[in-house]
Amino acid sequence: MSRIVDIPSSRMSNFFRFQRDPLGFLVDARPLGDVVSLRTSSFRPTFIINSPDFVQELLVHQEDKLRKGRSAGVLRRTIGDGLLTADRSAHRQQKRYLTPVFYKERIHAYAEIVAQETKRLCDSLQDGVPIAMHDAMMQLTLGIIARTMFKTELEQDKAALAEAVDVTIRHTASTIFSPIILPFGWPTPGNSAHRRAIRTLDAMVYGAIATARRAPDLYADSLLGLLLDTRDEEGLPLPDTEIRDQMMTMLLAGHETTANALVWAWYSLERSPGAAVKLHRELDEVRLREQAAGEPASAAGRYRDQPYTRQVIQETLRLYPPAWAILREAEQGLDMLGAPFPAKSSFLISPYAIHRNDGVFGDAEAFRPDRFQNGAAGWPRFAYFPFGGGSRGCIGSQFAMMEAALILGTLAERFTFTSVPGQGEAVPEPLVSLRIKGGRMMIPHRRTAQVANPAAAGRA
Predict the structure, then answer these.
(1) Inter-CA distances, 393 with 143, 246, 282, 385, 396, Å
(2) Which domains does the chain have, with CATH numbers?
(3) Cβ neighbours of residue 387 under 8 Å, at least 6 residues apart?
(4) Residues 354, 361: Cα–Cα separation, whole Å
(5) Which of 45, 157, 260, 429 could be cross-linked to 437 through a Cys-Cys bond (beta carbons 3.0 to 4.6 Å apart)?
(6) Rounded distance, CA 358 to CA 151, Å?
(7) Is the pTM of this model over 0.85?
(8) Is 394 annotated as a binding residue?
């Protein structure tokens, strides 16, 4: 019996429904079957993949027969031929020389920078004075990525750079899912704004490269220093254009996704008081243990000692995965789990929809960090995959988890956040990554530590 089912609605209604509400369309398609054919043209058939075993086939077992296709072509306009857009041999080579940036000892060093930058934001917040949470998280993670990856301070230009990132993200998203992709050289308002934004980002990136070339020893333990030291297969140094592409990739993929996830985390905690109480209890107990020990733990040590904080991030990534859709295209015919797919087939995988499977998670729409108490034990391998999978899985996933959990813990230790009244429920906006539509105005409320059993915390 075939595991491929045809979607019951017409091709035209599918198109308009997806354009209007892609997330709703994908969630509604998930229960229809393991693989749902959208009944597009036989020349370029399109399938929605809902089953974890088919996801594993595409992302792991058959990845060499697939390419990113349309999405990579659009992303190239901004990030060039970096790790996110490179295919096959180029991707493997780039991943080899970038992997050391995310070694464990380096991530521990980055943790201190994350803590420093987050404490700086804490110090700037005023009790009861609303903030634009999306802007705050974007500027925070932008500053962190600049310091950890490029050893560059952005305090003066942070707002302008964050705005440039926002413009590129919005225009890229609208282009990827547009039925017609206009040439980037055409002087449309969107293309013009996108090119101006790229010039703003390029000025920072090429400026950092030039500074690092003048004093390479100062950048030895950063991504930028690693790129300056890297040699290609012929022993030649990487050209500035390739270094630029990798920096742009990290800049866009490495901070906007984390910022969006954090906004969703604050929103979810506000709406889940029980989870917020558990989070604050853990943070207060960690602080009391540090006081009893007479010295603060390292940032990496704090991350290790806050399992529930990590669970909050994991649950946020389940309900609101930044990479809400993954696209693949087959250059040749392939067989997956006994089902044939013709050449030029397109596949759409939605972690957002797959993560909402009640059969796997039970009450999947509820925000319950406790479900990660035992990790992902008992779930199919690709029932939960916020960082993708296979060789194209996110190279910085461990860094991203550490960064998000430390930011959440550092801020939540000192503040709770409530939404400014009148905004209503948050609406997901599926751009290149998943954000809250219109952002979220939130009010910081300063808090004091409250521990049910301080003596027990001191003995722990």
Answers:
(1) 24, 16, 31, 9, 9
(2) 1-80+324-385 (3.30.43.20)
(3) 323, 393, 394, 397, 400
(4) 10
(5) 429
(6) 44
(7) yes
(8) yes
